[in-house]
Amino acid sequence: MDAGIVGLPNVGKSTLFNALTKANALAANYPFATIEPNVGVVPIPDPRLNIIQSFIKTQKVIPAALRLVDIAGIVKGASEGEGLGNKFLSHIREVDAILQVVRCFTKAPGGEDITHVAGSVDPLRDIDIINTELVLADLETVEQALPKAERAAKGREAETVARYELLKKVKPLLAEGKPARQMKIDDPEQQKQMKGLSLLTAKRVLYVMNVDEDDVNGTGPMAQRVREHAAKEGSECVPVCAKIESELSQLADAERDEMLEMVGLKEPALASLARAAYKLLGLQSYYTAGEKEVRAWTVPVGATAPQAAGVIHTDFEKGFIRAEIYSVADLQQHKSEKAIKEAGKMRIEGKDYIMQDADVCHFLFNN
């Protein structure tokens, strides 16, 4: 799962990225500090892995991973070349979801002012600036693609006709300033073409509310406005204090847990971000467990057993025979796979089985 971190300059974007990836670089207080995107791959916290390993002793525990891309600060007019202009676009096109960091804090931890590029702190205005720039960039993409698509559609091939019809439908939506993800697409071929267009506003958005240290749960008025906005458009939002997360990332586990309790948090931001991103993208985890490793795998909700096997290796999907499956809860209750089988809880599932969150699987396949 790939997520691009975007935001206006000085909203705490790079501080958050550094904290999540445990980087030590200091974020500078000026626009365009990040010229090329920094990339970090971070393990997604998953307590179920520890539960599995407590009953199945293994050499390694491998969590699912989140690939974070810290994209250069976007400013008003970026789609027309302001700031870094279109340099950020290719990096956003490559990710699965957008994490938009929104400033909901007023002052820096030491009390000093951190200059906002617009001169004041207004999270909804900031959201609108970035969304507008992405919409304008997409509108340009669509307008440039339409003439070629129209010519290609004259050949009456299903693929080219679907692409042309899709472009004709999405253009007026973008022209109204609305994101492409608001458009309902029922035609399977048009759904395929939408993925191929890689429109920025077709991606789902998770709003990361960078809050003050005394509002870690995001109950303040600015955070509440972001929550209402996210709910209205069907997005997710998570409160994060980047300053606290930066400090937590430097601590040993025991000290970190002590600080979490002190500031009123149950867990570091990465866990809540990962869960929100999973929900946003319609993802879930299943597990494999053996002597060599216990491992988490990410699949879409609704994936079949063969499709889940294909995440491990394409040959597993092609040669799929059946899967032996039980749940993490079954393992907690019965303590071993042997006891699960004896209790009749080890299920044999075929090609039509729809994977469930927290399934533990053994796949059988032909080479």
Taking all residues together, what is the mean pLDDT? 86
The topology string of helices and strands comes to: EHEHEEHEHHHEHEHHHEEHHEHHEE
Q: Any idea what the shape is?
A: flat
| Count of helix runs | 14
Counting DSSP E segments of at least 2 residues, the number of strands comes to 12
Estimate the strand proportion. Answer: 15-25%
Describe the sheet with the most strands: 6 strands, mixed
Strand order of the largest sheet: 2-4-1-5-6-7
Question: Helix content range of the residues, please?
Answer: 40-55%
Uncertain residue ranges: 23-35
Write the layout of secondary structure elements.
Elements: E1 2-6, H1 13-20, E2 38-43, H2 47-55, E3 60-62, E4 65-70, H3 89-93, E5 97-104, H4 123-153, H5 158-175, H6 188-197, E6 204-211, H7 221-233, E7 236-240, H8 242-248, H9 253-263, H10 269-281, E8 283-289, E9 293-300, H11 305-312, H12 314-318, E10 320-327, H13 328-334, H14 337-342, E11 347-349, E12 359-365
Helix pairs in contact: 1-8, 4-5, 5-6
